[in-house]
Structures are given as structure tokens and as C-alpha cells.
Amino acid sequence: MSAGSLRARVRAEMTEEIKATARRHLATDGANLSLRAVARDMGMVSSALYRYFPSRDALLTALILDAYNALGTAAEAGDTAVTDRTALRARWLSICHAVRAWALANPSEYALLFGSPVPEYHAPEATTAAASRTPLTLITVLKDSVDAGFSTPTDHLPPTVHADMARLRAGTAPGIPEELLARGSMGWIQLFGAVSFELFGQLNNVVEAREAYFEYQMRHVATTIGIPE
Amino acid sequence: MSAGSLRARVRAEMTEEIKATARRHLATDGANLSLRAVARDMGMVSSALYRYFPSRDALLTALILDAYNALGTAAEAGDTAVTDRTALRARWLSICHAVRAWALANPSEYALLFGSPVPEYHAPEATTAAASRTPLTLITVLKDSVDAGFSTPTDHLPPTVHADMARLRAGTAPGIPEELLARGSMGWIQLFGAVSFELFGQLNNVVEAREAYFEYQMRHVATTIGIPE
DNA sequence: TCTACTTGGAGAGCACTGCTCTTTCCCGAG
DNA sequence: CTCGGGAAAGAGCAGTGCTCTCCAAGTAGA
């Protein structure tokens, strides 16, 4: 059996190496990386690569899945890094900083996840689970905030938004009021917007104190959501 | 002289037609549209197209410039559509809705502006002026808010952020307190994040009431900035 | 009006791309 | 020890951005 799994192991290693090489190319060529160049880098011919990935899109899908999971892992690590689990504000901010740090360390992968959608490419269902890990980490803090008895916002939500939030809660986080979820989603959007603005060059020649301005924003968001100091 | 300008006029028309065709291709092929396909669509050979644009990047730059200006025009129109110039909240919200409407109507051009940066492509200086039209429109509302005597936020800004905002103010909007500019920039980021999330598919299967949730967010942002009802 | 010059279009060609198909080879299960 | 299947190689197809040469047509000066 060790012989039988050898083939499989080699194949798995090969697949990993292809992805690693592709990730390297991602940094310079973006989403339109070249299969042939990846193969060339590995000393193999391009057609051999099709034994591992049926198409370029399949390779991209694998990279996207890995990236979502890497970001999710980083976000969760940011959360658990705060040993005092009752320090909700610190946890929220730690997650935000973890997301930004991961994005700055892996800009091309972040762009693959949150940048312009690749034309003619449709993400398979499998990615959505990985994609929701990061927002779920944020929602966990909201849930702990509710359990700790902190007061929640009392916005008036339009009925349709209320329904959306109720549906979101049903799938993920029982017990969180719709109003809090709505504000939490806003915070997730602000986090994404801030990181994207910085990474995509929209802050150039405007804001130099990137870290400080990010911190300022996220503190403000945390306050808005109702996470006390 | 009418003969001399004929050539120029034909050339201008040709340039416009190329851009229009390219814009159409942008919708299906995204940023990696094909010069040859554009030429084919116009019944000409690809090399002829190089008489008008020295490279594919140059064509993209022209499209980007046009898109920034179109968005800026839409934003300004959203502002001036509010006849009561003292209705600052209405003006702010009208600008936000105009930006979203333009983005929904021109998704691929929006992606070109605010999506993943094109690898190896660096925007020339000329685009920055067009790019700032939309945020400047928002800042105008902030300025009118100050002039109207509305109270401004009293955040404590880190010194570096304070300096950034002072520099931003110096170039654009004298008289606006740094704290207000910082919050206004947050609002611009939230607007961008909300539109991008919706357009790039991040809201799929989560929020269905797109319009209503957007409105909710922007109202909240306006309140946060300190624009009274 | 005739000529000299500039300009725009056409076509061939180069190096590259994703992908398919066929051929070869070699590992490992029976 | 045989032989089936997985993996690699290579040729080939249609497409790409871009360059170069060639030619027709429009423009300006005498």
C-alpha cells in the first residue's frame, strides 16, 4: 500500500508545487498568468500540466480556494491571539489587522479574491464555505458581544434588509439581532474597502499614514457597531 | 483650412469609434480585451489600430480616463440635481446613489477603475485629476456643511493622520477641519466598498435587498459624518 | 496644377498564449 | 514478469500584442 500511495503522494506534491509556482507568477502577472510560463519554470512542458489541472481556470480556482482559506486562517488566528476572550474590542481590531496584514503580505492573492471578477469565470459552490470564514470570525465577536449583554443598536431597518439579516443570522449566528448584523456587515464592508483602497492604489498621494488611518477607521467602526472600549 | 481639419476630424471620430468598440468588448472580456478583436469588429486590420493608440495599455488608459470623467460627471450631476442647495444630507445621498447607478450601468468600466490593478500598468499623472472629481464632489458637501455652521466631529486624530488630512485640505478644500475630512474619507471608502461588494459578487446569497441596504448604509454614513437630517 | 510629403491602411511575420491530440515511457499491481 | 494506466513530451491549431515594410490617398507648397 505504501507503493500505491507513493504515486498519490508524488501527485499531491506535484500539485502543490504547481500551485506554489503559479502563486509566484500571480505576483507579477496577476490573474492572467501563463500556464506555459509556470510549466517552463518547473522544467516541464505545458501539456504535462494539464494532467493536474484541466484548465487555467481550474488552477485559478484552486488558488482562490487556498487564498480564501489562508485569509480565513489569518483572521481566526487574529481572533484567538487575544487571550482575554472578554476583550471584544481588542478581538475585533485584531481580526481587522490580521486581514490587512495578510492582504499586504499577499496582495495579488487578495486581488484575486476581492478585485475585479475574472471574465467568464464563475466561482464554484465549494469556494463559498471558505469565503465565509473571515466574515464568520467577525460575526463570532458580535455573538460574544450579545452574550455578554452589551446593548445593541436600535436602527430602524427597512423590512427587506431586516429579512436579509434574519436569513443571514439563521445560517450562521443564532441570537444576534438584525440591527447588529446590519452594522456588522457595514463594518466588514468598511474593512474590505479600506484594505482595497490601500492595496489598489487609491490612497496614493492622499493618505501616507496607512497603518494609523486604518486603525482610526476600524476603531470608529467598532464603536459604531457598539463594541465598548 | 476646412480640408486640413477634415483629416483631424476624421481622426477624432475614428478614435472615438475605437474607444466605443473597445468599451463594448470591455463588458465581455474585461481588462484583457483583444486589440485584434476590436479591429476586426471595425472591419480593419489590427496594425491599422496602432496609428491611433501606440499600445493596448494606451487604449486602456484612454478608457480609464473617460471612465473617471464619466463617473465624475455622474457624481456632480447627482449633486446638482438637488435644487435646494441647503439640503446637505439629500445632496450627499444623491451623490452616493449617482455613483452606484453609474457603476451598475457600467460595471466593467467601474471594475477598470476600482478593481484589481492591471499588472505592469501604471496610471499616468493625467488620470489623477479626473479621478479626484468624484471625491471632490463629496468634499464640496462637507465644505457647505462647515459654512452652514453645522458642528463637526471631535475625534482625536493621530498626528500622522492629522497631517495627511491637513495636506488633503490644503490641496482641495480650505476651511474643513481635519476631523471632518477624516470621517468624510471614511464615507467615501464605505461608498466604494458597498458598490464594489455588490458589483464584484460578494453580496451574492447574502443580501438581496441591494438598493435598500445601500441606502441604509449611506444614511448611516451621513449621520456619522455629522450631516443633520 | 503639379509635385513633395505626410498619413492611414494592409499584410506578412515574430514570439507568445491556452488547449488538444498522439506518441512514448515507466511505475506498480496482478 | 507481464501489461495496463498514469505521466511526460512534442507537434499542431487558433489566437494574441506588436513591428516592419509597402502602398494608396489626402495635404500643403510652388
UniProtKB/TrEMBL annotation, chains A, B:
Matches recorded under InterPro entries: Homeodomain-like_sf (IPR009057), HTH_TetR (IPR001647), MT1864/Rv1816-like_C (IPR025996), Tet_transcr_reg_TetR-rel_C_sf (IPR036271)
Domain HTH tetR-type, first and last residues per copy: 12-71
MF-aspect GO terms: DNA binding
Keyword terms, alphabetized: DNA-binding, Transcription, Transcription regulation
Residues annotated to bind DNA: 34-53
Coiled coil ranges: none
Protein name per UniProt: TetR/AcrR family transcriptional regulator
Organism annotation: Umezawaea endophytica
